[in-house]
Amino acid sequence: MSLDIVILAAGQGTRMRSALPKVLHPVAGKPMLGHVIDTARALAPRKIHVVIGHGAELVRERLAADDIHFVLQAEQLGTGHAVAQALPALEADKVLILYGDVPLTRVETLTRLLEQANESQLGLLTVNLADPTGYGRIVRNANGVVQAIVEHKDASEAQRAIREGNTGILAVPGKRLGDWLSRLSNSNAQGEYYLTDVIAMAVADGLVVATETAQDEMEVLGANDRIQLSQLECHYQQRMARQLMAQGVTLFDPHRFDVRGEVSMGRDVTIDINVILEGRVVIEDDVQIGPNCVIKDSILRRGAIVKANSHLEGAEMGEGADCGPFARLRPGAKLGAKAHVGNFVELKNAVLGEGAKAGHLSYLGDAEIGARSNIGAGTITCNYDGANKHKTVMGEDVFIGSNSSLVAPVTLGNGATTGAGSTVTQDVPAATLAVGRAKQRNIEGWKRPQKTPK
Ligand code: UD1
Ligand code: CA
Q: Which ligand 1 atom is nearest residue 8's CA?
């Protein structure tokens, strides 16, 4: 059976008190609507239709993709009206309705729900709530058969006592939907065309409403304000942490660990507290990450060690390489196997060969550094002349004395050495010492100035 998915995302989200459309507020670094779209994709539908209204242009711009069909709902006249806007484009046997501000629904839950929907049956996702205030209530007859959904504002006292709430997530036979939507009326407490009224119509037409229940409330929670947004964030992070621990990762404290992107991790990885992983991060077996590290779009090969307070972006660390504490690896930083980067060292577009070392206080930009070379403390590659970037190329086994300035473009051959404090402006041949500093003078008997007594 073919599937169309409609995602409702036209509402304003007044309670967010934000210039940003609600569905663009991020959970784990990704807009909520982005999560819903990814979940929809995992169900392999014929088409994904996103109904937009408030902030439509921005939403479209941020989430445009080949498989997304945007539908404009110019005025927000209710959830039924919203689905009706997508109707002309719906062709599939089944239609699943999702919400752009409900980001954490599991694919497995929706798969179960979809199995319930066919020509004679609707699938409705419900949730049992300690406090169902605000939710539509699931009204069942004496035999437990679903009859209707009554919105909180339209419900009687008795109906308000019902704890089973409507999540809004619904799978319906596509061929019937148009007829039902055309018969909706807005004579209710909110003056809206309620999608939920479709339930009673389906029952009247002799269809069965089959329910599935969400595993937990968070799976169907929408973010109406920033408090709920933080609850979703927290839940997402806990879910991610549990998943990684189940795969063989040690998290020193799962409450102080955040993933904002896609990570793949090997076994026996250990991660200390307050680590944030962003973008695409690949971490191989036996990697150790110290506390307070931010690692974005990077690859850490087997056994690499990132020490406390390091910041990596667009970097690659080879097998057994280590960096930090307080290392900064910027885009294009690449450490060979067993290479070492120590404290207060910044690398940008710089490759350190196997076993090469930069132990302390350096800036290495646009540089190629051969295997086993040693960069002394305070070394700077002067890679920028105010207009252009230039390269520093070093062979193997080079030794750079402390506090050297390497004025690029410059090349140093295998085994070259620079004296401490040198400003190197010319290429240094292999196995040669370059000394580029003023010669020391000693002035005998020189007297320091004296303070005049008061
Ligand atoms: C809706 C359900 C209610 C359910 C609750 C779960 C209806 C009538 N009620 O109520 O039974 O318990 O969700 O959270 O469906 N939207 C549009 N266009 C519109 C109106 C809404 O795109 O014209 C979108 C909103 O952006 C939002 C979603 O639909 O993402 C739900 O709308 P909302 O008005 O918040 O419905 P609720 O009153 O919460
Ligand atoms: Ca709502």
A: 22
Number of independent structural domains in the chain: 2
Active-site annotation holds for 360: yes
Q: Which residue's CA is minimally distant from atom 25 of ligand 1?
A: 11
* Ligand found nearest the CA of 101: 1
CA of 79 to the centre of ligand 1 (A): 5
Q: Using a 6 Å CB cutoff, which residues line ligand 1?
A: 8-11, 51, 73, 76-79, 81-82, 99-101, 135-136, 149, 151, 165-168, 194-196, 222
The answer on 315 and 406 residing in a single domain is: yes
Show pLDDT as tens, one digit a residue, over the chain (454 residues). 899 999 999 998 999 999 999 999 999 999 999 999 999 999 999 999 999 999 999 999 999 999 999 999 999 999 999 999 999 999 999 999 999 999 999 999 999 999 999 999 999 999 999 999 999 999 999 999 999 999 999 999 999 999 999 999 999 999 999 999 999 999 999 999 999 999 999 999 999 999 999 988 999 999 999 999 999 999 999 999 999 999 999 999 999 999 999 999 999 999 999 999 999 999 999 999 999 999 999 999 999 999 999 999 999 999 999 999 999 999 999 999 999 999 999 999 999 999 999 999 999 999 999 999 999 999 999 999 999 999 999 999 999 999 999 999 999 999 999 999 999 999 999 999 999 999 999 999 999 999 999 8
**Rg, C-alpha atoms of the chain:** 31
Measured between alpha carbons, how far is 304 from 185 in angstroms, rounded to an integer?
63
Domain for residue 382, yes or no?
Answer: yes
Report the nearest-CA residue for atom 11 of ligand 1.
Answer: 136
In a domain, 70, yes or no: yes
268 and 206 in a single domain? The answer is: no
Q: Ligand 2: distance of its center to the CA of 220 in Å?
A: 11
Q: What is the pTM of this model?
A: 0.93
Cα 11 to averaged position of ligand 2 atoms, centre (Å): 9
> Same domain, yes or no, for 165 and 260?
no
Range of the domain at 34: 3-220
Residues 213 and 70 in one domain: yes
234 in any annotated domain: no
286 and 213 together in one domain: no
* DSSP string for 173-236: EHHHHHHHHHT----STT----TTHHHHHHHHTT-EEEEEE-SSGGGG---SSHHHHHHHHHHH
Q: Do 349 and 400 fall within a single domain?
A: yes
The number of the ligand nearest the C-alpha atom of 21 reads 1
Query: Do 255 and 199 fall within a single domain?
Result: no
Tokens of residue 34, six digits: 């982005």
Let me know: does 305 contact 286? Beta carbons within 8 Å: no
Ligand 1: which of 12, 79, 125, 146 to mutate, most ligand atoms within 8 Å of CB?
79
Q: Helices H, strands E: what count in the chain?
A: 8, 35
Are the beta carbons of 310 and 328 closer than 8 angstroms?
A: yes
We report the CATH number of the domain holding residue 189 as 3.90.550.10
275 and 328: one domain?
yes
Catalytic one among 54, 69, 152, 360?
A: 360
- Does residue 451 lie in a domain region? no
Cα(366)–Cα(449) distance, rounded to whole angstroms?
Answer: 45
